[in-house]
Amino acid sequence: MTGYARAWESYLQKFFEEECQCDGICEQHLIKIQWLQHERLVHLLVLLSVIFSALMVGFLSLRYDSILLSILLIILIVLTAFYIWHYYFLENTVQRWYRYYDRLIDMNRTNTEEMEGAK
Q1: What DSSP assignment string belongs to 47-91?
Q2: Crossing angle for the helix pair 2-18 and 67-118, to the nearest 10 degrees
Q3: Residue 20 has what DSSP assignment?
Q4: CA-CA distances (angstroms) from residue 90 to 15, 79, 117?
């Protein structure tokens, strides 16, 4: 997902530098935002599930003195850390893409006003 997001952002940066026509790119960007929002929601649900599992295993490891529960708890804590990092990336990417969309709308509005002024 990180490679996909970075590739799209580099495409948008080139698009902004060249100041091309916005025909279709706003709709395409909105679709990509929706995909990313869906990805973010799924990762939030998985993150909450992993945190809940880690808490349950943590309580069980306090109750029962088992090395296997302790190992499972460590694995779940590490997994939680990676999910938090990835969710942080997704959240920041969505926020950045909202700003890109605003910029695309402004470019589209400017291009429309210039074309109407030329008539």
Answers
A1: HHHHHHHHHHHHHHHHHS--HHHHHHHHHHHHHHHHHHHHHHHHH
A2: 20
A3: -
A4: 22, 16, 40
Which pLDDT does position 111 carry in this prediction?
67
Written as six digits, the tokens of 5 are 């997001």
pLDDT by 10s per residue, the chain, length 119 = 788 888 888 888 888 887 666 667 888 889 999 999 999 999 999 999 999 999 999 999 999 989 999 999 999 999 999 999 999 999 999 999 999 899 888 887 776 666 666 65
Nearest to 94 by CA among 46, 29, 45: 29
Which residue, among 103, 93, 113, 102, has the nearest Cα to 19 in the 3D structure? 103
Exposed/middle/buried for residue 89 (C-beta within 10 Å: 0-12, 13-18, 19+): middle
Give me Rg for the CA atoms of the chain.
Answer: 22
